[in-house]
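Re: the multi-chain job from yesterday

Posting the exact lines I submitted so nobody has to dig through the queue logs.
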Amino acid sequence: MLHHLPVSAYTSREWFEREQRHIFSNTWRYAGFMEDVSEPGQYISVQAGLSNIFIVMGRDRRLRAFHNICRHRGTQLIRAVGKVQKALTCPYHDWTYDLEGNLISVPDEEREFGRLDKSCLGLKPASVDIWKSMLFVHPDPDAGSIMDWFGEVDSLIGPHEPETLPEYEEARNTYEIAANWKIVVENYIDVYHLSHLHSSTLHMYDHAKAEYGFVGPHFTFWEPPVPDYAEDQDSKLPAPRVIPADQNGTWVPMLFPGIGLAASEDGWNVFIVEPVAPDLTRVTNRSRVANASAWAFSKQAARSAHFWSKFGLGGKYEADDATSEDDPMASGDFTSEDIYACEQQQKSLSSPHYEVGPAAVGESPVLTHQDVVLKWLDRQQ
Amino acid sequence: MNHGFYPLTVQDTREEIGGLAKSVIFRVPDELRRIFAWRAGQHVCLRFVIDGHEQRRSYSISSSLVSGDPLQITVKRVAGGLISNHINDVLERGDVVDVMAPYGTFCLDTAPNLRRTHYFFGAGSGITPLISMIRSVMCNEPHSTAYLAYGNRNADSILFREPLAGLVEGHGERFGLSHVLSAPSMWSGFSYWRKGTVDREAVEALIAENPPYAQDAQYYVCGPGNMNNTVKAGLMLLDVPASRIHMENFGAEVESDTSVSGIAANARIHLDGRTHDVRISQNQTVLEAMRNAGLSPPYSCQSGVCGACRAIVKDGAVHMRARMALEDGEIDNGHVLTCQSVPMTDRLSIQFD
Ligand code: FES
Ligand code: FES
Ligand SMILES: [Fe+2]
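And the result, structure tokens for all chains:
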């Protein structure tokens, strides 16, 4: 057991499939940033658990979401991203749908089918909405209000207005971690590890003062800057400020399932966790920064450089202890440290001698998340 | 039954747009609160007896229940209009008026967990149900946004000009107000959004300038018939699904199709838990036949606008001369306006709500 879940929850196909069906196909899924579909006719497709769903903007500038399945023989209708004028045509036999999902034409209809009731052959709708500048889809067309899902955490995840912050496109990043998605989430919400694994990468925040907990299935977290970083903070922020001057700290919630945010004084980031296989997880990062000129960014970087050179960012291990030149533990990069820890933990799971020790106070969120997963699977079965 | 009138006392009145309209506020006694718990967008029917003749008129409620305001209607003078001028000239605090329980299906029901984008298109006194809806959204849907395109002749003819400006001041983040003036005066410093009417271009511009953030978008249209048709056509051109468009006709006369005269029929009517057999003669509406037979069905405007007389045809078929008060989905479900319905089959079975 890993506290409340069996080891098989992290290694078996069967668990993976249950989670895909009951968790990832049954909740609001992150689908991108609102800018990704911002003009009539523009579309994207996204995998939401077992369902592939596409989002398209109509001429009324409202988004529609449909299951990406041709109603003829089920071929996926559209690929990745693109733009259309008025209609979507399936590549296989050219059945054509309008942007409302109605089937509007079938080649050789008369000869091939006789009379066909096209009105029952529209694309199957799904739900779509925008929240905190992110697109969300739900495979159920009657999913209800997205505020029923996120309403209670809405005010607990930071004073940021992500809708007003442009994306910092260079920060887009997708990578795979050879570990189960829950290992990745547990690492994200493990408060105990912050002072240890990240002893030289995240020490500008005061982990002893962290405030955290669960609101329904969602984890919330905030901690203040250490006094050294808090004092005259505007001269120390690496990039221009994005929240009111009287507020500071870092907000790092993990919304269920696997929707991580990380926001602080100078930026707003998403950390999306997507299960690929029992022991493989894809993470997608995107960032928003201040709506300021390149000049303002370089000025702020130059202004804060002095503080950071003295503050001592570095690797957990000194060069002498590093195993090789690219040892993640000497990288000075907290993401590399986390990936390393997750993968090392997953490796042990296959050993018959695997056993966990007691959980620290700062690891209580890990246990609660396991309970949330259990409860969610129970409820759906 | 509930189709009856209740005597309500006028608590206060207020002149609007320089005496061209009047708001009338009613006191609703505690024992009637449940009956007079209106939904934003609904109207009430008032009954007056003038020179020995009974007169009924429907007016939209211009206040919102969820914002805690008292029941209020706002009546614009109509040239030569008997009741609108009576209300404007005569009605005062302390008077007692017969008022029917609120009804109507042009409604916006709010809930705090809903997050929607509401677009409102109105002109002239069509603002009365819309301002009730907008207030309700501001009070009871903290995550929702509202945009209003409001057409008038000039700055002086804008009903609720100050209250609307107050809403912008209080909720500017969530309420966008766009005035459209057809004949703006050059000297008034009043700043407006567009010159002209609430037409197809205005519909497109309002949505393009304010694209929905919350994706559950709803569209409410309330003005004279020609504005409504133009706005609806404009929305349809943008592929807004009909199920999201909510409409009510106001002011100008409704077009009605009287070319069909119907046939004589025997109707079985289910009303208030009782069954009645009523003979309908050719060219008579279902409502007329029922009243001649001494029944007291609910009705008000008798012109297909208010929806008070609605019922469901369980058997047989009717032709409706006008149907403004019904949405397409209701018609599909068999709803009819009995004041507009003439029989098309010689047997009918009709059920009132
Ligand atoms: S599968 Fe799409 S047209 Fe045949
Ligand atoms: S009485 Fe008003 S619609 Fe029939
Ligand atoms: Fe970490």
